[in-house]
Amino acid sequence: MTEISQIPPNGADMQHFVRKDKFDPKAVEKLTPEQEKVYLASQWRLMWWKFKKHRLAVVSAVFLIILYASIAISEFLAPYGLVNRHVDFIHAPPQKLHLFHEGKYVGPFVYGMNYKLNMTNLKREYTIDKTKVQKIRFLCRGESYDFWGMTTSNIHLFCAAKNGTLFLHGTDRLGRDVMSRMIYGARISLTIGLIGITISFLLGISIGGIAGYYGGLADMIIQRVIEVLQSIPSVPLWLALAAIMPVTWSPIVVYFGITIILGLIDWTGLARAVRSKLLALREEDYVLAAQLMGARPTRIIMRHLVPGFMSHLIASATITIPTMILGETALSFLGLGLRAPITSWGVLLTEAQNINAVALYPWLLFPVVPVIMVILAFNFLGDGLRDAADPYK
Questions:
Q1: How high is the pLDDT of residue 346?
Q2: For the purposes of burial, counting CB atoms within 10 Å of the CB of 46, is it exposed (0-12), middle (13-18) or buried (19 or more)?
């Protein structure tokens, strides 16, 4: 590059040099293709690139996408129906999955079980019969089911062998397959978090936006209401709100009632976060410009202020959804939330309330495994989104 100026000695005049050749912007700084790709990338593309570097968050996102996609085809994935009973296999233990029999590869199969009643302690005893090799069938015909009220089918992803059983997670006190009920229960437990977070976000953004944008008396009243709600212990508040719902309500009405309860409880933290952000952003020049142009406060909040911290809202959602799932699980476990015939992971765990049942039939605790996995996945996803929210760090 041509030298533009030189530092003169003390007391000497500054000498100037002018380049007479035509200015070429690209000659000022030659960018490599990789640098040019980064410099010209949009904010969302930079966030996506940084998010991909968080391997655990990417794996969690894929896991959650697959899990949420599976609830649309629960009937196809479950080997048995939701209420199908096997009276000869009540509280049957889980059957182990095998690939080899006597040193030969057979494919996925389970061994059959023999049952007898111990007349001394009246306990059901199951023994493995290795002479009964029950090979698992795939894309097979089994029990009929009504698919989303549109069509009837009997095709399942996998089924038990002919005249065999397939209880990979055991059975409950009525002889129902625990794994099939867990697959059906995911539909309720996962969607209740999405509906609850929608209600919570609408309340949190609206009320927090009013407090942060207007301030003054409105802010003081809203903050006092939030402090009162946050000072009430969660469990007694759940008990009080759940007791309001009449026992004569249908299960689907109770389901929506629980989602509204969870949404009404969890909006306070988000409202305070929105308020603090808006208190800082409302003094920006673009907000003043929107006010001078006659924009309404609702438009300023939703169109100009909220997008300014949308990444923070996305990260908050990934933390709040597992809280909703835990809330539904806790309410159902206490017998105050969803109830049969609706099936959720919390409803399934009600069978594990009796310590004697857990000691004798520990497989009844299997529904807690997907709850833990989903909560961890959402937390890891939230960590990745928080890091990606500021791609310039």
A1: 83
A2: middle
